[in-house]
Design a protein that fits this description.
metal-binding; FNR_nucleotide-bd; 14 strands; alpha/beta; iron-sulfur; six-stranded antiparallel sheet; flavoprotein; membrane; Elongation Factor Tu (Ef-tu), domain 3
């Protein structure tokens, strides 16, 4: 069930998923208002939504032209939907004009508040702070109400699950809800009423699902993300007022954005395409020369941006595990599965000419090896899921000058799909191959496990000391879920996952 859900959600980019979910909430709000369930009329909601979307979309396009870059329409639509849900709906011309100004401020922040080409602050939160501090408008967060709460909660759950930020969102919701409930109880509310007031009248769930979870304004590591979530919850719950500035969710979120920026790669990443090479009949390696420094740890991934015409539903941004060594400052490499029919992104990638400049917006991930190089490990890779292990093995092989205690389970659809064979041979590790047909010839130290799905019994037999090894599993969601479960049944320790959803 989990793997099916991962595969289903993986077919939609995060940008389009956000648009669908936020659009569904907006539609529910309009329907609820038609039945008198909201304070605002359907006309006010429809006019405000139209103005917010037009203002952010048009201003985003103009700013992109001014800064000589390509506009990202889906990002503008998401920002417009957030602005619509933060500022109070209206049908008054003056109010609609101010709402348009809010959308323009949000778009401007993406360009004017970028540091070395890196996105720093959540645009909708910036607009809320600017408009409130200047007293031009008020961020009312009208989306936080008991009628919409169930729909917001379901939407937030979908987004957090898709981005693998459920724990981050939960930390924020639990801390913020607990602190506000305690405040309301201290003010004389009954505990159950205080809990309902916190969740039903404050944008706790909305903030967690649709703004705090924004990848570009989160730090790269999970513990850092949890720290930022807790910080935003605490800052949000502390009452204060300094002139026109008072305690608000938007200020709390911007504080978290600033802390996240301190943890992250502090500049946008520009790279020059060097060329590609075939790995297997259906996959290739792409090499880039960093034009700005790239900091990463083996096992992490980068988000590659390739603006192009006629973008399909998969979008213009994709995440790829880095296969090059972390200490190789002259090259950043990724391995790519080129399935047919291919997405517009991968067709654009395949058509790149050497010398072309591309951008990466984010580097992160927690699929990292233990700090102690002496810990015995077992890797399990499904197809192109081998990519994070290539960088990790290169680092371990060079770093200690001694054999690496790793057993690799490598599952492929055919023996022709065994990618990075030379790098794996150079690492000197034991490799167990699972494929439908037995290979005619395998390198020394490689063994054929047979066809079919891996089972706990087969794993225990092939790796007698499995109980003493830490396990890492990478590949498609179905493969990761199955192999992780069988490894745990066989006694492997601390199984870590890296599912390539929608690859």
């Amino acid at each position: 069930m989990k793997s099916r859900l991962d595969t289903l959600l993986g077919h939609v980019t995060m940008y389009r998923l956000m648009i669908v979910v936020l659009g569904a909430i907006a539609l529910v709000a309009i329907i609820a208002s038609a039945f008198g369930q909201l304070f605002y009329t359907p006309l006010q909601l429809v006019l405000s939504l139209a103005v917010a979307l037009i203002a952010t979309g048009l201003s985003g396009w103009i700013f992109a032209l001014a800064f000589r870059t390509r506009a990202h329409l889906e990002s503008s639509v998401i920002t417009g939907l957030l602005v619509f849900m933060i500022f109070l709906p209206t049908d008054a011309p003056a109010g609609l004009l101010l709402l348009a100004v809010s959308g323009i401020v949000a778009s401007a922040s993406k360009y004017l508040l970028a540091i070395r080409g890196r996105h720093v602050l959540n645009p909708a939160a910036v607009a809320a702070v600017v408009m409130t501090v200047t007293t031009l408008d008020i961020a009312g967060w009208w989306v936080a109400n008991p009628v919409l709460l169930p729909f917001v909660a379901v939407g937030a759950l979908i987004v957090l699950y898709r981005t693998r930020k459920l724990t981050v969102g939960l930390v924020f919701v639990v801390i913020a809800t607990a602190l506000f409930t305690a405040r309301f109880v201290g003010n004389g509310e009954l505990p159950f009423d205080a809990l309902g007031l916190a969740l039903g009248s404050l944008p706790i769930v909305f903030l967690a699902g649709f703004m705090l979870s924004e990848p570009l304004t989160l730090p790269p590591r999970r513990w850092q993300q949890l720290l930022v979530a807790a910080l935003v919850a605490v800052v949000f719950s502390i009452p204060y007022q300094i002139g026109p500035v008072y305690s608000s969710p938007e200020i709390a979120l911007l504080v978290g954005n600033i802390v996240a920026f301190a943890f992250s790669q502090r500049r946008g990443i520009r790279m020059r395409f060097l060329g590609s090479r075939d790995l297997t009949p259906t996959s290739a390696a792409y090499d880039f020369e960093p034009l700005t420094p790239v900091r990463f740890r083996p096992g992490q991934y980068l988000e590659l941006t390739l603006p192009h015409r006629r973008v399909d539903s998969r979008g213009s941004r994709r995440m790829f595990s880095i296969t090059s060594a972390a200490d190789d400052g002259s090259r950043v490499s990724v391995g790519v599965k080129l399935a047919q029919p291919s997405s517009s992104f991968k067709r654009t990638l395949a058509a790149l000419e050497p010398g072309a400049t591309v951008r990466s917006t984010w580097v992160g991930g927690d699929f990292l090896l233990p700090d102690d190089p002496g810990v015995p490990l077992v890797f399990a890779a499904g197809g192109i899921g081998i990519t994070p292990f290539v960088s990790q093995l290169a680092e371990r092989s060079r770093g200690e000058g001694r054999p690496v205690d790793v057993v690799l389970l490598y599952s492929v659809a055919s023996v022709e799909e065994l990618a990075y064979a030379d790098e794996l041979v150079a690492a000197g590790i034991r490799v167990l191959v699972s494929a439908p047909d037995a290979p005619d010839d395998l390198p020394p130290g490689w063994e054929y496990l047979g066809p079919g799905r891996l089972s706990a019994e087969a794993l225990g037999t092939a790796i007698p000391d499995l109980r003493g090894r830490r396990a890492y599993v990478s590949g498609p969601p179905g493969y990761v879920d199955h192999v992780a479960r069988e490894l745990r049944r066989a006694g492997a320790r601390a199984v870590r996952r890296d599912a390539f959803a929608g690859y």
